[in-house]
Amino acid sequence: ADERGAHGVPVAGEHGGAAVPVGTNELRLAPGTPRRTASAAHPANWLVVLGRTHAGLQASGRAVAIPLYDDPGEPPDELALADLAFEDTDPAEDTMGGLVRWAIPAEADVSFVTSFAVYHAESADGLNREVLGSVPRGHNAFVVAPGTPCNLSTHIVVYAANGYGEAANGTSVEFRSFDGMAMVVTSTTSTSSTTSTTSTATSTTTSSTASSTTSTSSTSSVTATTTSTTASS
Q: Is pTM, for the whole model, over 0.85?
């Protein structure tokens, strides 16, 4: 269920085809290679690269994991994040600062996601949202710099994104900025971003496709450093 190879299915080496010998630092998968794991409930979100010796495969805890990106040709669908929380540690009333954090549900298909865009807004549905920044997929936290103006904002909203844009819906968490008080709220809701938005900062949606991997839903072309490669959720 994670980058350590849970529910993995071999795609090269061992039972999945010819092993890649030492000194060969890439593997190209044929178009049409299925993107799957051993569990129907856990989508293939990672490529895991394992070394093999005469003693067998190396331990999965020491494997190299590469985020698997399956180019959808459009922005990602809504991704409901788990445990979204924000702690405002800035003591001023009209500014904010602190750590935004979240978790990815084990059953979520994030192969269409390359980054997460973080906003503050005046409502759970993104009213008058202003961008705080973004982080690449694989990072489940974002640091809001102390002194960041929050104006009338009451919510943090996080959207899944890729090179085509952001998901129409995000996940939100409410916060309050009070003078001399830090506020922590951990309840989350799925939100819609159909309301008008404003921005006082420049946002760049990061398309964080690993240089060694490219995959599509109907056809797959993946290059990875490997002696044995496993698709995992």
A: no
Q: Which range has the worst mean pLDDT, 22-31, 45-54, 209-218? A: 209-218
For residue 79, which of 137, 39, 33, 153 has the smallest C-alpha distance? 137
Residue 52's pLDDT is: 81
Q: Which residue matches tokens 């102390």? A: 146
- Which of 13-22, 40-49, 104-113, 190-199 is predicted with the least confidence, judged by mean pLDDT? 190-199
Residue labelled with tokens 């994040």: 81
| Cα–chain center distance at 183 | 26
* CA dist 188 → 79, 93, 171, 177, 196 (Å): 12, 23, 6, 18, 21
The model's confidence at residue 177, banded by pLDDT at 50, 70 and 90, is: low
Distance CA 67, CA 48 (A): 9
CA 205 vs. chain centroid, Å, equals 12
CB 123 within 8 A of CB 139: no
Instruction: Report the C-alpha gap between 115 and 140 in whole angstroms.
Output: 10
First to last CA, the chain: 5
**How would you class 78 by CB atoms within 10 Å of its CB: exposed for 0-12, middle for 13-18, buried for 19 or more?**
middle
102 by Cβ neighbours in 10 Å (0-12 / 13-18 / 19+) ranks as: buried
**What per-residue confidence (pLDDT) applies to 199?**
37
